[in-house]
Amino acid sequence: MSQTPTEIEIVSYGELHGDPPPLPPDVHIDLRTALRNPHQDPAMRQLTGLDAAVREHVLATPGAQQIVRDAVTQSLAAVRADRAVRVHTLCMGGRHRSVAIAEAIGECLRAAGAAVRVPHRHLDRPVVQR
Which ranges of 14-126 would DSSP assign to H, the alpha helix? Predict the structure, then answer.
């Protein structure tokens, strides 16, 4: 019998929206202060982590690649036969950093043979003005 879950679910979300995912994560990645924030650049503010410019900006931040590698390692270590592994990526608004990192983790896990789902909880919400 296989010891891999049905899937690894990587949920991105933003703290400022006030509604985190209902189930607790196996792996939690807090990006609120870890990476450059594309929101600060007016040219990227209305874009998301699915857009190439934002993704490149986030992944080029020093330490970003290590965050992705660590999350992949932790996710694979959390694999269990009885349920999917839950990974949460958190930033302030849930549109930029958490999305780009969630997608990068998902790509690496798929390359490792994992079944992955990457829902973005706040991607379609308005940009949070602070």
Answer: 52-59, 64-77, 97-111
